[in-house]
Please model this.
Amino acid sequence: MTNPAFDQLLRYNGLDCCGTQAILEILESQLTPVTRATYEQSLRLYAPAMKMMVRGVKVNKIAIGQLKHNLLAELRGLQDKWAYLTRELTGQEVNPGSPKQLKDFFYGTLNLPPQHKFTKGVKSITTDREAMEKLIKLDLPAVSIVCNLLLAQRDIKKTLDVVTTGLEPSGRIRSSFNPCGTDTGRWSSSTNVYHRGTNLQNITEDLRHIFISDVGYKFFNIDYEQVDSRNVALEVYLTTGDSSYLEACESGDLHTQVAKMTWPDLGWTGDPKADKALAETPYYRHYSYRFMCKKLGHGSNYLGKPKTLAKQSRIELHIVEAFQEAYFSAFPGIPLWHQIRIEELQLKKGLTTILGRYREFHDRLSDEATWRKAIAFLGQSPTADLINKAMLRIDDELPEVQLLIQVHDSLLGQYPEEQEDELFPKVLSCFANPITVTHPTSGPRTHLIPSDGTVGWNWGKRWKEGPNGTVLEIQKDGLDKWRGHDDRQRHYNPGLSILDRRLS
Model:
C-alpha cells in the first residue's frame, strides 16, 4: 500500500537534488581558472569544517558554574539600578526586554531624537545597540547612564545564553561553520542543526577560559602578526611599486616604524626598545604615537575619511587630519593604490586579491561606500585565505592534530600532549606560506607573514598586564607563548574523578 504523503516527499527531494545538479552544471561551465581555484579550495574546506562541527569543544563545567553565579549577581545589581532610575524618571518601572516600553521611555518620556534602522528597505524606530550608542554620544549624563545600564544587561544576558543554551548535554559546545558564508572568504559561525551552540568566532576574551582541551590533549592557538597591514603593504607594492610601507612591516615593529616615518623629528635612537618606548609616549590626551599609528593607520588604509575616523576614535578632527597628512606623506603609495584600484573596479566591476580571490561588486560603482568595501576586501580577504590554507595543510599533513575553531585570523586546535615538542613546530610550519607579488618595473617581492603561537589547556590567556606595567598570572592552564618547550603540568584535570579532586 502506497503512502501519498511519503511519495510526494520523495518527489520533492528528488526534484530538489536534480535542480541543484542542473544549476551546478551551468555554473561550473562559467568558471574561469581564477574562480575555479577559489571554488575548489572552498570545497576542500568543508572536510575540516565538518570535523570541527562534529567534534565541538569541551567546556569546564565548574568554571561555567562560577561564571553563571557571578553574571547573575551582576545582572541583579544592574536590574535593581535600572528599576530605580526608570521609576524615578517615569513614575513606573520600564521592562528592559520590551521594545515598546523602551521606545516609549527613550523617545516619549525622555523626548530623545528617535533612532531608525532599515530592514529590507523598511524604516523603523529602534532601541538596538547602535541606537543606544548614538544616544550616549548626546553627552547627557542621565541618558548615558540608562543607555549603558541597558547595554550592560543585554551583554550579560547574551553571555548567559552562550554558557546555557549553547551547551550540549555531553559538556561540549558544537556550532555550525560555513566556509562560504561571506563574500570575502571569511568563515561564518552560528548555532547548529539542533539549535544549540553559538557563534564561536565571537567569543570574547573574558569567556574563553571556559573552553578546555580534552583529556590527554593540549590547545594551540596560532594567529598571524599584523596580517591585514601586511596584506595592504603587498597590495601597495604590487599596484604601485612603492615598497616603503612593506619595509615598515618587515622592520619587526610596524606601528613604531610608522611613527618614526610619520614624526621623524621625535629623537629616535635606532635602538628598537628605546624607540618603542618613545612611540608609547602620549601624543594627544592619553593616546600614544604608536596607538595613533595603529588605530588611525588601519582606518586610513581602508579609505577612512578624517571626519569618520575622528568620530570613531573620539579624537579631535584637526589631530586626525594632521596624522593622515603625515601618514600619506610617509607612504605615498597607499593613496595611489586607492586611486588605481578604484579605477580598476569601475572599469572591470571586480577585483582580484594578492592570493587570487576574485570578487564582483554589484553595488553602485560610483559610490564611496562601494570603494571602501572593495579596498577592505583587498586587505582582509587574504587573511582568510591564509588561515584556510594553513588549516588545509594541517588537516592533510598532521592527522594527529584536531582542528577546533577558526576565528577569522587565528586558529584553535589541540594535539596529544605527549607529542607537543614534535607536533607544535610542524603545526606552526603549516602557517609559513610565503606570498610573492610582482610589479612590472620594480620586479618580484616575496614576503612571509610571521605567525605567533601559544599553548595551554584552556583558551584564555595565562597572563595579563597589571598596574604599573606588572604582569600577573591569572590562570595556570591558560595560553602562554611557545618558547620551544613548555614545562607546565595541567592544573585542572577534567578526567579526574570528583572523589579524587581536592576540595580546597
